[in-house]
Design goal:
alpha+beta; 7 strands; globular; 21 helices; 3-stranded antiparallel beta sheet
Length: 536
């Protein structure tokens, strides 16, 4: 006898699972949202929903009632091509972001081109900008070729490795060195698949940015979401309709309306994205408060520790105030925390209030309010390595503004399989390009300061595009133990870039000092030990 015989009335053991393809993102979001308000199945919902009904629903429940979770159900794929590395860093700074960007390890960025800001007729800064970019790219090309040749001399091809694989691996390692010279003006491309909710906050954040390229990027993203999407099957569909036309004109017309119809991926959910006054006003006030409160700590005395695991000794209020000031400063978190901890409670409260006073009805609190994590790593590393660490989104990242104050990194580590080889700095010396390498970076930093002081519009923002990836950037990573374990194990591996391998190793050492029993469970790769350069 079947077990179905013993089911009580109303019992159903008939779970159904099916993938859905072909529905417009907003229509699909509406259909999923209907589960909470309708007994219809997904098939029934999608059959009866029109784009117009979806828009009406979203206008009511998303915009009027603030049910932002509905927008989490609509996911949209974008290609973002020929944007600067600087713009890419800002674009992907979303905690709910999924995507991939061109790799500095596997592609030659000489072919990418670069972004040129509008200097509004100011010839001197424009000429200096162009000259500096060209100098960095020329040094990048020389370093790539010289390091590649030096690696060929040092690392013979094993018999078990195919020559083309050997060459690709060495070229990737040469790019690892040369990428330090790439300016933030360098063009890149990326693909992203994000929810409409993430897209809306992303567009709003970009429209609020002081750099013209970022504001323009925000407009283009909004237009791409609300305008006609590119249909990957359009050419094939048009060819099919053309073949049908001679045999059955009516069927061809019906097929054309179905196969070649215009699709707008998020015509409703993103159309009202606008500059975020809360973020703009708060950032200005935090910058002023940070300058006043931290004035007693001269910037030239800023420490250059790679990683500082800042233990928890302060109240939640002090952590919030410290993190808010950190986001608008260039000082280490420990310095700021210790200073804020000495302030009167009323002053601490005033700093926290700055972070909330301009918050609108539907604004999420600033990222700095994601406080309370057990582990806080204050990290100072080159921008190139930071871009790799930036991908770890299951933590809270507070990124300080770009600056030349922290100096720059040069590739000084990564052994090549035996104790008598000191690493990439040796390779640079052997390749006769170390002086060339350093002078290009120093010239770029000097030009950055000169252009920032020029009368050109948005001069301070335009100057930042000259910063090479060697430039140090400070960021605060707040996380739980599981995420620290994951980052350390992944990023310390021998196949990774030596920049973030060093950071992961320093994270482990800091964790080991404070929590030795927990650190024993982490499968870290010792950064100080020689590695097989050909391991990938």
């Amino acid at each position: 006898m079947s077990s179905e015989t013993f089911l009580p009335p109303g019992a159903r053991n008939q779970t159904a699972v099916f993938a859905v393809h072909g529905a417009d993102p907003e229509v699909l979001a509406y259909a999923m949202a209907k589960y909470s308000r309708s007994a219809l199945s997904m098939r029934e919902s999608l059959t009866e929903i029109s784009a117009q009904r979806a828009e009406q629903f979203l206008n009511t429940f998303y915009f009027q009632y603030g049910h932002r979770s509905i927008a989490d159900l609509a996911h949209i794929a974008f290609a973002v091509e020929r944007l600067s590395l600087l713009a890419a860093i800002v674009l992907v700074d979303e905690q709910r972001w999924d995507g991939q960007e061109r790799s500095t390890r596997y592609q030659n960025f000489l072919k990418s081109g670069w972004f040129f800001p509008d200097f509004a007729g100011h010839a001197e800064p424009a000429q200096l900008y162009a000259k500096t970019i060209e100098n960095l790219f020329a040094a990048y090309q020389r370093a790539t070729a010289a390091v590649l040749e030096a690696l060929r001399r040092r690392v013979p091809c094993p018999a078990a490795l195919k020559p083309d694989a050997y060459e690709r691996t060495l070229k990737a390692r040469a790019f690892d060195v040369a990428r330090y010279l790439l300016p933030l003006a360098t063009n890149t491309s990326l693909g992203q698949i994000v929810s409409a909710r993430t897209l809306e906050t992303q567009v709003s954040r970009l429209l609020s940015h002081p750099a013209a390229e970022l504001r323009d990027l925000g407009l283009k993203l909004r237009d791409a979401a609300t305008g006609p999407a590119w249909n990957v099957n359009a050419q094939a569909a048009a060819a099919l309709v053309e073949r049908l036309a001679s045999a059955n004109p009516e069927l061809a017309a019906e097929a054309a309306s179905l196969l070649t119809r215009e699709v707008r991926t998020a015509p409703t959910l993103v159309k009202y994205a606008h500059p975020n006054d809360y973020a703009i006003q708060t950032q200005a006030e935090l910058t002023q408060a940070a300058a006043e409160i931290l004035a007693q700590i001269p910037s030239e005395t800023l420490p250059h520790a790679v990683v500082d695991l800042v233990e928890r000794t302060e109240t939640l209020e002090v952590e919030l105030a410290s993190t808010l000031l950190y986001s608008a400063a260039h000082h280490p978190y420990r310095q700021i925390r210790d200073l804020v901890a000495q302030l009167p409670a009323a002053r601490v409260g005033e700093i926290v209030e700055i972070g909330l006073r301009h918050r609108g009805r539907h604004d999420e609190a600033l990222r700095a309010f994601q406080a309370g994590a057990a582990l806080r790593f204050d990290i100072l590393m080159d921008i190139g390595g930071f871009r790799d660490m930036h991908r770890h989104r299951r933590c809270t990242q507070i990124i300080q503004p770009l600056t030349t104050l922290h100096g720059y990194e040069i590739p000084t580590s990564c052994d090549f399989g035996s104790e008598d080889q000191d690493g990439y700095i040796d390779i640079l010396i052997e390749a006769y390009c170390r002086a060339d390498f350093l002078s290009a970076i120093e010239a770029a930093h000097a030009a950055t300061a000169q252009i920032a002081a020029s009368p050109a519009p948005e001069a301070a923002q335009s100057a930042l595009y000259l910063l090479p990836l060697a430039t140090r950037i400070r960021s605060l990573f707040k996380m739980d133990f599981a995420e620290a374990q994951y980052i350390i194990e992944l990023r310390s591996g021998p196949a990774g870039h030596f920049s973030y391998r060093r950071v992961a190793w320093e994270m482990f050492l800091a964790l080991q000092r404070q929590h030795p029993a927990l650190a024993r469970s982490i499968r870290v790769t010792d950064f100080t030990k020689p590695i097989d350069l050909l391991q990938r």
